[in-house]
Amino acid sequence: MVDSLHRVLGLSDEEATKIGDILKRTPNPLELAMYSVMWSEHCSYKSSRLHLSRLPTSAPWVLVGPGENAGVIDVGDGIAVAIRIESHNHPSAIEPYQGAATGVGGILRDIFTMGARPIALMDSLRFGSLDDARSCWIAEGVVSGISGYGNAVGVPTVGGEIDFDSTYQGNPLVNVLCLGTLPKDRLVLGRASGIGNLAVLLGSSTGRDGIGGVSVLASAGFSNQVDVEKRPSVQVGDPFEEKRLIEACLEIFDSNLVVGIQDLGGAGLTCATSETASRGGVGMDVDISAVPQREPGMEAHEIMISESQERMLAIIEPNNLDLLFEICAKWEVNANVIGRVTAGDKLRILDRFDGNVLAEIPASSLHDDAPIYDRPKKKPEENKTVSSEKLKVKSDVVSDLLSLLSDPSWVYSQYDHQLFLNTVVGPGYDATVLKLRDPVSGLETNKGLAITTDGNHRWCAVNPRVGTKLIVAEGVMNLSCVGAHPLALVNCLNFGNPENPEVMWELSESIDGMAEACEGFGIPVVGGNVSLYNESSGVNISPTPIVGLVGKIEELHRKPPGFELLEGNRLVLLGPSHIDVGGSLWSALHGLNSGELIDVDLETHKVLADLVRSLVSDGIIDGIHDLSAGGLGVALAEMVAKSKFGITVARIPDALSLFGEGPSRVLVSINSENVNELLSRAESANIPTTRLGLVGGDRFIVKDLIDVPKETIDLAFLTQLPNALGVGTVSA
Amino acid sequence: MTATVGVAVFPGTNCELDSIHAVETLGGDGKILWHSTKNLSGVDAVIIPGGFAHGDYLRPGAIARFSPLMSAIAKFAKNGGPVLGICNGFQVLTEAGLLPGALQKNNGLKFLCKTVQVRVETENTTLTRKAEKGMELSLPINHFEGNFTCDLDTLNSLIDHDRVVLRYCDNPNGSIDDIAGVCNETRNVVGLMPHPERACDLLLGSEDGKVLFESLLGSN
Amino acid sequence: MRIGLAVGVSLVFSVLVDVSLRKGIADPAGSTIERSLPTLGFLGVRDVGVGKTIRFTIEAEGEEEAKNKVESICSTFLTNPVIEEAKITIENTDQVEGN
Amino acid sequence: MRIGLAVGVSLVFSVLVDVSLRKGIADPAGSTIERSLPTLGFLGVRDVGVGKTIRFTIEAEGEEEAKNKVESICSTFLTNPVIEEAKITIENTDQVEGN
Ligand SMILES: Nc1ncnc2c1ncn2[C@@H]1O[C@H](COP(=O)(O)OP(=O)(O)O)[C@@H](O)[C@H]1O
Ligand SMILES: [Mg+2]
After folding, report:
1. Which CATH superfamily is domain B4-217 in?
2. What is this model's ipTM?
C-alpha cells in the first residue's frame, strides 16, 4: 500500500527511494506526506534551482539576498527595505477572490517576518482575453480580492500591471509584490537556535485549508473542468486577523522577544518548523495536540500540511513567553507553544510533548536533500517572421490605435493607494514614487523610493532571453522616468510545464537574459519566486517572467513630471530609432505572435537612463513616458488622455513607425525654452533625438496618418476595461 | 495654544498615524486612544479615523461601537466636545447613534479610491468654522461603504437644520442628496467619508484638508 | 419545556437570522445585480434584493428565553434598525448541555 | 403547467437564494462575530456562520424553466460553488405577464 502512496502524493519512485535512504527505513504515511509537500515544485524549486544560481545576487547594499523570506537592502539613513514578489496563480483560477486575497496575505507575511512594516503592495495580473466571459469573471474576482484584502489589512496597493491575452485563458497569473521598511538593526531572520527555546504558533487556528494544495494545486496542471466535489478545499483570507498579526509581531520585534520567526505559507507547519530548525542547525519537537484546530477530528498529516492562513511561528526564549502572551492578548492574537528546540537535527512530530513519536525526520533533509533536476531543454522551431507589409495592409491606423488603449484606473481605483501618506506618484504612471520615512519615528527623510513591475509575454514568446532583458531594461527606464536609480530586483517566473523541454528551454533562456541585464545594469537580484505548470488543457502559457524593481530618489522635493502635456510644449523622442513588429502589441492585435525582437544595447540604455534621470531631477521637462507595448502611438495617446490638450506631430510616416516596438526610447514634453538644453545634453550623451511636434488644441493629429478629436482618444482609453469588466460578480 | 487631539484606535483601524500626522503638521498634538480605555485623558478633541475596525465584519462600525472608548466618546460629545469621524469613523458614529443615517455599499459595488471635489455646505460646525460656505475642496475618498442613506424625514430634518456639512460635486457612490458629511444637532460631532488627512501636503496632491483640521484644532 | 432538567442545564437552540433592507431603503447590491444580469444573458429578472443571514446556536433554559436573547442580540447588534429588519427562526436542537 | 395560456406568455416566480459557505471553509466574519459577542454581554452563542440571501422575481413559462434559469444564474454568477453552496426556493406568484 505504502509504496503506491508516494505516487498518490506526487512523489516519483526515485524520490521515494531517496527518502528511504535518508531515513534508513520505510517512511510512514505522515513522513511521506511531509516530504511530498516539501519536495513539491512549489516548495523545493526542484526544476529551477539549478538555473536560478546563475543570477547575480550581491551588491554592497544587499543585507539579505535570495533564500530568506524576503530580500533586504540598505537604503541609507539607518533604514532597510524588504521586498519580495510571489505568485498565486492556480488558487486564483478556481476561486479568484480568495485566491488573490490569500496571495496578498502570503506576501505580506514574507515581509513582516523580516521585521519590516509592509508599506506597499503591487499586483501584476494576466488574464485571458476580454471577450471571454470566464476570463472577465476571473479578472473581476481577482481585482476584488486584492482590493478586499489589501485595503482591509491596511497596506496600500500602489501600482501593478494588467494584461489580457488568450494565452492565459484557464490559467490566469496573479503575482503580488510587497515592500516594507525597517530600522536596519531590527532585521529578524527565520531561524531557530538555543536548545530549550520554544516555538510559538501565532494567529489563526488550523483547519483543512489547502490540504494537498501545495502538491496538487501548485505542482500539477489541471484541466478546466474540475469536478466540484474533488476540488481541494480553498483557503479563505482574513485580513483582520492579518492586521492584528502584523501589529502584534512588530511590537514583539520592537520588544526584542524573538530569536527567529517564520511565516506559515506553502506546506504550513511542516515547512515552518523544519526551515527554522534547519537554518538554525538544531532539531525541534512539535506537539500537534497543542495546535488549535478549527475542525474536529483532524489527523496529524492534515495539521502538519494545512495551509490555513494568517499564522506565524515565533521562536523565543522561555523567559520571554509571558511578555509575548501579553502583547498577543492586547492584539487579540492567539498564541500557543507547540514546539521545543532540541539538540541534534531531528524534526519530531509528537501527539503530546511526552507522548508518541508520529514522525522523525532530519529537519534539513526536507530542504537540502530535495531533488534538483536538470530537466531536458529543447529550443522550439524557429518562429516565422511577421511581415510588416502584411500588417500594414490589414490595419486601419485609427481603429488600431483605439483598440490598443486601455486605462487601468478601473483596477487601481479599487485599491487604497494612499494610506500612510507616502504616495507622491500613485498608480497610472511609469513607476510609483513613495516618500521614504523613518520606519520608527515616521519622520520624512526627503528621499524617495520608486517601484515598478514589468513583464511582457509577447516579447518573451518571441525570444525569452532578449525579451527578459528588455523587461529589466524597461523597469530601469521606468525608475529613471521618476528620477530614481535602481537598487534591487525581485522576480516571479511564470512558466508552463517544466517536463516539457521547450518550456525548460524558455525558463533557462529567460534566466540568462535576466542575469545578463542585471549584471549589465549592476542590479542585484534579491529574491524571487518560480511558478511552473501554468497550463490548462495541456497548453502552456507564453513565458511570463515578471520583474519588480525598487530604486531610490536622492532628493524628493517636487513631484516628478508624470504624463503631463502643457499647452505649447514640444514633444521630443529620445533614443535609437530601431523598431520592429516582432512581439509587438500591434501584431498581437492582428493575431500574429512571432517575428524578431530587437536586442537592447545595455550600454546605450544605461546612458539614456542616466540622461532621463538627470532631466527629471533637474526639473527640465514637463512630462515623460517611456515607450513600451504599443510603441510611440500608444505612448502619445496615453499622455494625451491623461492631460488637457491635444497634439500635432509629424515625422511618423506609417503605422509601423507608430506601433513598432524597440528598446531604449523615451518620449518627453518640454517647454520650448528648455529644448536647447535638452538637445545639447542628449548630444553630449550621444543619444539621438527626434523633434516630433507640439502640444495644443483639442485634436490628436499625426500628420498624414491620424486626425481625430482628443475625446475619441480619451473615450477609448477610459472605457475599455469598465465596458468589459464592469458587470462583475457579487461575490465579495 | 496647542490642542491635544485624541485619535481612537480599534483593532483594524489603519489611518490613526496619518491623522496624527495631519494634526501635528498643523501644530496640534496627537494622542492614541486605545479602544479598551474609558479615559480620554483630557483631550480637546477626538478623531475616529479611517480603517476597518474589527475587520468591518457584520457591518462597518457594528462591533466597534460597543467598545468602552465609545461610551467615553459619547459622553465627551454630549458635553460639547468636538468629535470628528473620518470614513470608518463616520460609520462608527452612525452605528453608535451619535450621527443619523447609515452608510451602505457604494452604488456599483466597487471600492473607490480617488480624489473628488466636495462643497462646504455650512460654516457652522466644529469642522468647518474656518472654511467658507460654498468653498470647493479636493479630497481623497477611500471606501466601499460610503453611500449615505437615511429615511426622508431624517433627510428633510438634516436639510432644514443646516446639518449637511459637505456635498459631493459629482456623486461617486450614490449617497442620498450627494451627502458627503453631516453633523449632529449640537454641531460638535461631524462625520465625513472623504479623508482630509490625506490632503494636507501638496506633494501628495492637495492641501485642501488643512482648513478642516484648523477648524477642529481651534474649535473649543 | 422539558421536564426533569436539572437547574442550570441548558438547551441548545439553532437560530437563523434573515436580515433584509427595510422597505424604502435603496439596495445598491440588488440593483447592481439586476443591471448586470441582462448583459450576462439572463432576462426577466426583477426586484432583486440582497440580504444576509446569520446562523448560530444559542444556549437557553427554554424557548422563551432563547427567543428573548436572540431578539436582543438582533436589535442591538446583528441589524442596524436604521436600514435593516430581521426575521428570526429558532429551532430546538434537542441537545442538552451541562454548564 | 397552466392550461390555456397563450404562447409566449410567462408566469412570474419569486425566488430566494440562500447562500452559505461550504462546510470546512473558514468563515472569518462568523468567527469575528462569535468572538465579540461575549464582550458585548451575550453568552452561550456558538458556531456563528454568515451567509447571504438574494431574492428576486423571474419570468418563465413554467416551474421547470424557472428552476433551470435560477440554477444557472446561481452557479455562474451569484455564487462560486468552490466555496459556497446555495439553497434555492422558488414559488409561483400566480401572476401572469404578457411579453
Ligand atoms: N493591476 C494593477 N494594479 C495597480 N496598478 C496598476 C495595475 N495595472 C496597471 N496599473 C498602473 O497603471 C500604470 C500603467 O501600467 P502599464 O501600462 O503596465 O505601464 P508601463 O507599460 O509603463 O509599465 C502603472 O503605473 C501601474 O502602476
Ligand atoms: Mg513601463
Report:
1. Class I glutamine amidotransferase (GATase) domain (3.40.50.880)
2. 0.92
